[in-house]
């Protein structure tokens, strides 16, 4: 996936119009459009602003190899990301407990969806 495709994908996931993203980072919708179709590439400082506005990293935006699931996965909820970073510091037993709780909530959600 190209840089422009990633910008477009993340922008649409956040339900932003090109003009709205442009206003956040200080550009026009025309320039955002150029980035998205590959007619222009952002400078490093603009790439950083775009990544911040899209709740991702500059590395994700420019990295062509998304075969690695850890690169492809983007956690946009900053509070949840902070919590997961804290969990990484837990003992193996505590990590297992957190994973068990998460699995229970996911299973509950799947059952609720099946019941609809």
The percent range for strand residues is under 5%
CATH level-4 homologous superfamily of the largest domain: lambda repressor-like DNA-binding domains
- In angstroms, what is the radius of gyration? 18 Å
CATH hierarchy, class of the largest domain? Mainly Alpha
Just name the CATH architecture of the largest domain.
Orthogonal Bundle
SSE-based structural type: mainly alpha
- State the domain count: 2
Q: Give the mean pLDDT.
A: 86
Explain the overall architecture.
This protein is an all-alpha fold and 116 residues long. The protein has two domains: 3-72, 434 Repressor (Amino-terminal Domain), CATH 1.10.260; 78-115. The protein has eight helices and no strands. The protein has helices spanning 3-13, 18-25, 29-37, 44-53, 58-62, 69-72, 78-87, 92-115. The protein is elongated.
Summarize the structure.
With 116 residues, the protein is mostly helical.
Features:
116 residues; mainly alpha; 434 Repressor (Amino-terminal Domain); 2 domains; 8 helices
Topology:
Layout: H1 3-13, H2 18-25, H3 29-37, H4 44-53, H5 58-62, H6 69-72, H7 78-87, H8 92-115
